[in-house]
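Tutorial handout. Part one gives the primary structure; part two gives the three-dimensional structure as tokens.
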Amino acid sequence: HFWTRGGHPSVAYDFRNLRPQGDCCNLYKSGNLAEYAVRLRKEIGDEEFEDLYRLAHVTKKWEPGELEILIEKRKKSLLLLNQL
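Part two.
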């Protein structure tokens, strides 16, 4: 997570906010956020990065129904990826 789950729950499940990291960056460099920001902006583009920033700073309390819908969407996405 670029924006932490605990501090920014509104983007906790946003795929734009998720990237795999190796142990070195994730554990020993506390996420290496300066480099993460540069690469994330380059990967998703300025507009999406700014949208993610705005959304990260919105107060969000997830309701169980919302999470269930999100889980179903993610399951469908994974099924589609597995078919490729």
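Part three, for discussion. The CA atoms of residues 41 and 48 lie 8 Å apart. The two ends are 26 Å apart (CA to CA).
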